[in-house]
Automatic annotation (TrEMBL):
The lineage of its organism: Bacteria, Pseudomonadati, Pseudomonadota, Betaproteobacteria, Neisseriales. This is L,D-transpeptidase catalytic domain protein. It comes from Neisseria musculi.
């Protein structure tokens, strides 16, 4: 095999390796455990979340969607649509202080964290981490 052929083969292997890692990234999955109101990442690190009684279960693709609606920080991660309603993972919505969402997400009482209309509310830090995930499983 000449030098040019070796270089072409090595370049091809590099492209295939990167494509494989991209495919791995597209399969990165976060899991929401509704019985614990927790979201767990690949490293088995789990975080409290706010969920609702109507939060749908299943495996969904996560898609970042821009929004101009107040309280969402400019974007949300859509995971399901049902008629006119979009289920999404988004930063804790704080426009009704009487709902005490920040206090509730920090509560060790799981029942206090079941209070949304079906969306999954997460802290700002967790939301940023989730941007590297493409699949959401809700169990």
């Amino acid at each position: 095999m000449n030098k040019l052929a070796v270089i072409v083969v090595l370049l091809g292997l590099g492209v295939a390796a990167r494509a494989g890692s991209i495919e791995h990234l597209k399969k990165r999955k976060a899991v929401v455990y509704t019985d614990r109101s927790e979201l767990c990442l690949e490293n088995n690190r789990c975080y409290p979340v706010l969920i609702g009684k109507t939060t749908p279960k299943g495996t969904f693709d996560l898609n970042i969607v821009k929004t101009t609606q107040r309280g969402y920080g400019g974007d949300v991660m859509k995971f399901k649509e049902d008629g006119d309603f979009m289920f999404a993972v988004h930063r804790v919505w704080k426009l009704k202080p009487e709902e005490r969402r920040m206090e509730r997400i920090a509560s060790s009482n799981v029942k206090e964290r079941v209070m949304t209309n079906g969306c999954i509310n997460v802290t700002d830090d967790l939301y940023e981490k989730l941007k590297a995930y493409f699949v959401l499983e809700v169990v």
